[in-house]
Every structure is written in C-alpha cells, then in structure tokens.
C-alpha cells in the first residue's frame, strides 16, 4: 500500500471548479491560515499529543516511562517511533480537509484513504505492532476538524488586541463529528479487536465517540484537566487525573477486548476509586491507583481507548492555548 504522502499526491489535483469553490482556497481572496494553525503545525501538535500521552507516568497498565504495562509488543521507544511516522499522515489529513472546505462524503473517503496509508506507515515503523490505529481515527478527525475551523476567521476566538486567535474546541469536535458521520464507502469489512468488542458487547466504540462529537475528550477529559490545574496540581498529575476521569465513564473497547466486562468494570470502578480518594496526588489516591494497575495487569487488560481520548484531550487543549509566537 502507498504511503500517506503518496496517497495525498494522487488526491492533490482537484478540478478547477472545486478549487474555485473551496472555502480554504489559498488565493489572495482567501489567505491561508496563520502559521500557528498551518497543516504542519497541526500535525506537530497531533504528534506532541501522542508522545505526551505515551510518556505520561504512571498510567495504569499502559505503556509509560516505567515499562510496557499490559502490552508485550509495545514500549515507549516504539510508541515514539509510531507517533513520528504519522506526522506526514496528519499533515495530509489537514491539507485535504482545507482543500475540500467542508465536511462531505468525498472528504470522508479521501481522509479514510490517507488514514489507511498512514496505518501502514505506522506498522512499518513499529515492526508490525499496532501502536496508534485508534489514534489515527480519533486524532486524525480532530486534525481535519481543526483544519476546517481555522481556515475561517469567523470560527476563531480572540483574546484581546494583539493576542492570537484560537479555534473553538467545541466547533472543532462538531465539524470532526460531521465528517465521521459520512460512510467510508471503500472500507473493507472491519474485524479489528475494537470492532469485535463493540459488536459483542453492544457499545459505541471509537466510531460512536467520534460521531457523537468526542464527548469523553470535550466534556470529560478537558474539564478534568482544567479543574486539576485550577487546584494547583502539577501538569503530570492533572493529566493522570484527566485519564482517570475518562476511564471512569468510557466503555473502553480495549479493556473489553482483553478482559471482557470484568476488565471494563475493573477499569471504571478502579478509576473512580482513585478520583474519590482525591485523585492521584493524594496518598490514598496513589494507593488506589497502584491497586487499579495491579488488577488490570492481572487481567492482562489495558485502557487503550481511554489513552487515545487523553491524547485527543491534549490536542484540543493545545489548540485552545496556541501561542502564535511558537509557530
């Protein structure tokens, strides 16, 4: 299969009529987005979010700086390689979204082609390990949504004279959800671990999360992150508590695939116990977090879906706080 960059080359010559109607046309009448929200910048933000999630420590039964968690085929070095291999994919997703200018069936089809090529790039970089398949879907849609939103000044929020404009994260999620609701017309019948778990246990999975507007990132992860910061907690602790908040309510298909309902309930209840103890910054919370990890490791279960949505949370948080001087 061709790489994401090669797929983009094939897609990158739309008819002139499409270019004339493109809301993000880079002609003098429609200037390109500011550098903080360029395709390259959005791609780097996506990679930063993936790496920040991977490096966050301690996470229950997930790859982090301590080790591989419940994963035998992954480690931190592999996660980093995978993330970096996806940078061209995310840039291609942003560029294609801007070129099309609005959510559509055609855009959905093109993004899917790029995503599948990116998945092959990831597998090549990791030696066959699935480090970020779910993240390509979740983060990829958000990158496309951000690209569409930031090509229009009407969608940006201004924080005073001279301050950089920022996209409305709720609008980014809404636009990404609109894209996700179109069918992928050329997708092969999916038999992924997550899809099998979704069908067996009748849960929404990553597809429903996207089509619903990423509620576990927008309405759970981000508020938890902001609340922890407001309490004066350090950034590492704030991010751990955001992960736990997501885990406490998400029907995580990674947990379901690995350990069934027992694994899902262990993850949800254990995360709630940590939060009820005051979060991971308290002595009681740390004891509960250690107990949660032991239970998940005993079940060989890992909350990978929650990890993907934490990365989505971090990506949205970066969008909301982008400083133009960092472009």
From TrEMBL:
Keywords for the protein's UniProt record, in alphabetical order: ATP-binding, Glycosyltransferase, Nucleotide-binding, Transferase
A biological process from GO: prosthetic group biosynthetic process
One Pfam family in the UniProt entry: CitG
UniProt-listed Enzyme Commission number(s): 2.4.2.52
Superkingdom of the source species: Bacteria
InterPro entries: CitG, TriPribosyl-deP-CoA_syn
Region (Disordered): 18-37
Catalytic activity: 3'-dephospho-CoA + ATP = 2'-(5''-triphospho-alpha-D-ribosyl)-3'-dephospho-CoA + adenine
UniProt KW Transferase keyword: yes
Keyword NAD attributed: no
Record's signal peptide: none
GO MF annotation list: ATP binding; glycosyltransferase activity; triphosphoribosyl-dephospho-CoA synthase activity
PANTHER family: 2-(5''-TRIPHOSPHORIBOSYL)-3'-DEPHOSPHOCOENZYME-A SYNTHASE, TRIPHOSPHORIBOSYL-DEPHOSPHO-COA SYNTHASE
Function: Involved in the formation of 2-(5''-phosphoribosyl)-3'-dephosphocoenzyme-A, the prosthetic group of the acyl-carrier protein of the malonate decarboxylase.
HAMAP family in the cross-refs: MdcB (MF_01883)
Family, as annotated: Belongs to the CitG/MdcB family.
UniProt name for this protein: Probable 2-(5''-triphosphoribosyl)-3'-dephosphocoenzyme-A synthase
């Amino acid at each position: 299969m061709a790489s994401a960059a090669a797929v983009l080359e094939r897609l990158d010559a739309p008819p002139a009529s499409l270019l004339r109607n493109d809301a993000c046309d880079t002609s003098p009448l429609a200037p390109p987005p500011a550098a903080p929200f360029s395709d390259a910048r959005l791609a780097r933000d996506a990679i930063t979010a993936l790496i920040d999630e991977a490096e966050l420590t301690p996470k229950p039964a997930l790859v982090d700086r301590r080790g591989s968690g419940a994963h035998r085929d992954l480690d931190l070095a592999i996660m980093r390689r995978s993330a970096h291999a996806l940078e061209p994919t995310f840039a291609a997703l942003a560029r294609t979204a801007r070129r099309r200018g609005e959510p559509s069936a055609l855009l959905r089809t093109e993004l899917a082609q790029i995503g599948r090529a990116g998945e092959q790039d990831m597998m090549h970089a990791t030696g066959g390990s699935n480090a970020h398949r779910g993240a390509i879907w979740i983060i990829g849609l958000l990158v496309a949504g951000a690209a569409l939103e930031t090509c229009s000044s009407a969608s940006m929020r201004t924080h005073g004279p001279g301050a950089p404009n920022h996209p409305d994260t709720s609008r980014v999620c809404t636009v990404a959800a609109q894209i996700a609701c179109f069918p992928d017309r050329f997708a092969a019948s999916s038999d992924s671990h997550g899809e099998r778990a979704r069908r067996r246990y009748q849960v929404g999975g990553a597809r429903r999360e996207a089509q619903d507007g990423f509620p576990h990132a927008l309405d759970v992860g981000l508020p938890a992150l902001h609340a922890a910061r407001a309490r004066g907690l350090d950034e590492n602790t704030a991010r751990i508590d955001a992960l736990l908040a997501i885990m406490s309510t998400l029907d995580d298909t990674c947990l379901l695939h690995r350990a069934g309902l027992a694994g899902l309930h262990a993850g949800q209840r254990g995360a709630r116990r940590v939060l009820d103890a005051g979060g991971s910054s308290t002595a009681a919370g740390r004891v509960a977090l250690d107990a949660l990890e032991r239970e998940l490791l005993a079940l060989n279960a890992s909350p990978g879906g929650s990890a993907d949505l934490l990365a989505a949370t971090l990506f949205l948080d970066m969008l909301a706080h982008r400083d133009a001087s960092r472009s």
